[in-house]
Amino acid sequence: MLQERIPDLTKYVEPDRVRREVYTDADIFELEMQRIHERVWIYCGHESQVPRAGDYYAVQIGRQPMLMVRGADGSVNVLYNRCPHRGNMMCGDRHGNTGDFFRCSYHAWTFHHDGRLKSIPMMESGYAGTRYGRDNPDCSMKRAARVESYRGFVFASLSSDGESLLEFLGESKVAFDDMCDRAPEGEVEIVPNCFRVIQHSNWKIFLENQLDALHPSVTHQSTGRAAHDVEKLIEKKTGKAPISYHMLSAFATVTIDKWDNFQTLNYPHGHCILTGYMGLRPQDPDTLAYDKVMIKAYGQKRFEEIVGVNIHHVLIYPGLSVQSPLQQLRAVRPLGVDRTLTEIWHFRLKGAPEPIYRRSLAYYNLVNSPATLVNADDLENFWKCHKGLSSEGGDWVSFARHLGHDIEKNGVVETAAGCGTSEAPMRNQMKAWAQYMTAEK
Amino acid sequence: MATKSKGKKKAPIKEPGRKPVPKRANGKNAGHDLQHEVEQLLYRQAELLDSQQWQDWIDLFAEDGVYWMPPERSHKTWEGMPAIFAEDRNLMTVRMKRVLHPDAWSQRPLWGTNHVVSNVQILKDAKDELQVRSRFHMMELRRDDVRHFAGSYTHHFRKTKDGYRIKLQRVDMTNAQAAYDYVLQVWV
């Protein structure tokens, strides 16, 4: 069907522009789910979300409802959330504990935490002489083809072949290193709360916005100005405003011409890094106390390396946006061609003093909660983008900003000095998209 | 509207199934009055929200007052916890200034709310504090979309010489855990 209508998808992506149907065509969306989300490594969750045997979390990979579950042997499994008998979903909750085994609520088939069939009621009398029984793998819950984790972050791929998780992540694995290294104990643990917000737009619009250094001073002007006003009032009264005000007021005080001083680094597979102001190190007593704990854990030299990492955002294409210096991430779950769920999590640095946790928590609450002071205007833009692209007022989306100024070294595209607002990250994502979509299986 | 009659003492209204109102320490038969006074306060707060009188709404809070919406009923404090809202008057002011800014793009489309507040129960009536539980239902229209939010308010009022001020308003929304179709722009 799609093949007849669009014989050559490669014609939809040019170096400086992309056809609008890439965002709005329902058949292209289905193909994306098959060829991208249900093939590559997708983030499931963090191991600390399922600390005890039987703990599970439901997660959507492409169109597949999956379960991440901790086994009695300590391993983390990712299974299709489906009973092989009549197709009933095994768990209807978003998370919980399944006990010593899974038990289907329809006909009481039971399964081990790794998906293997445990029992069928009256198996002997009911299934003697049939193909159904423990020896038939089709009677077990189906497992994700591959599961791997890196520093506690669990990924699954529904394709049995392909590169390893680390090969896939490449340089973008710094998202997890930066997050974990900032913990005196070298690990993070989940803050048990997930904020879930649905965007009325295609999943790619969100990802493209994450490293769009030009939009903040335009989109978030209102919040920046409001926070700046109140920051000044507090400073007048008490001398010092909490750092969270600075994080918000930067949207207004870092004016549009200054965002070109940032830089993006663009890697194979569509992954990108935006460097920038989150590396800022205040010299308040809380930070100094944290520095002391860190120096004790790592030594002065390693400490300087760790806190010197200059990252604002890491985008792991096609499903994860990580703000490592603030220990939070947004996982992208496409629900349909024009609906996208974001699942937003925060992590605690193990061994760090409480005020450091509270500082990043303030950002999580103010920016990433469902009552966000920031994302309300992003989501409005995303919706408007999607609606505009659904029209026949034009055929193309432009990604030409600073085109021709990118510097390519060993497959990594860096934006040139003074070109931080380059649309290189969007070009890089679309390059990966075209490769995935046209790859032969 | 209830009007106070001067001088004359009114006989208590007899309602079937209703317990007699307890006398307060000062001898006044104040139960009905307090219930009425509290209800009027809650209605006024809802009215200020729905008519978008943000500064007047903020001024219902004490100087150290907090508006808190936990993501889960089990949370006992906002301190150190993820919260949908945990705002003091300074943060409320940021939110107000944001929505009033001409470039708050998400505020451009037609947007409005309608709150109904009911089931008002006085939980505690102490010397300087009053705790009240109520239920709310809020309907929101934004562009062409209607959404519903419902739950309970727990108000902790401080008694001051200028009347009641909110020390803490806790909002337990029944759909706090549901996925948000778009976000919440102002207080519920």
Distance between the termini of chain A: 19 Å
Q: In this structure, how is the largest beta sheet of chain A organized?
A: 10 strands, antiparallel
Give the overall form of chain A.
globular
Count of helical segments of chain B? 3
Biggest sheet strand order of chain B reads 2-1-6-5-4-3
Q: Helix-strand pattern of chain B, N to C?
A: HHEEHEEEEE
* Major β-sheet profile of chain B: 6 strands, mixed
Mean pLDDT of chain B equals 88
Assembly type of the shown chains? heterodimer
What is the percent of helical residues of chain B?
A: 10-25%
Distance between the termini of chain B: 27 Å
Instruction: Note the overall shape of chain B.
Output: globular
As a percent range, the share of strand residues of chain B is 35-45%
β-sheet strand percentage of chain A: 15-25%
What share of residues of chain A is helical? 25-40%
* Largest protein-protein interface: A-B, 41 and 35 residues
Please, how many helices of chain A?
15
Task: Write up what this structure looks like.
The complex is a heterodimer of chains A (441) and B (188). By secondary structure, chain A is α+β, with helices and mostly antiparallel strands. Helices cover 33% and strands 23% of the residues of chain A. In chain A, strands 13, 14, 15, 16, 17, 18, 19, 20, 22 and 23 form a ten-stranded antiparallel β-sheet that branches. Chain A has a four-stranded antiparallel β-sheet with strand order 6-5-4-7, with no helix packed on it. A three-stranded antiparallel β-sheet of chain A has the order 1-2-21. In chain A, a hairpin with a 2-residue loop joins strand 22 and strand 23. Chain B has a six-stranded mixed β-sheet with strand order 2-1-6-5-4-3. Mean pLDDT of chain B is 88; it is low at 1-8. Chain B has 188 residues and is an alpha+beta fold. The longest helix of chain B has 20 residues, at 31-50. The interface between A and B is large, with 41 and 35 residues.
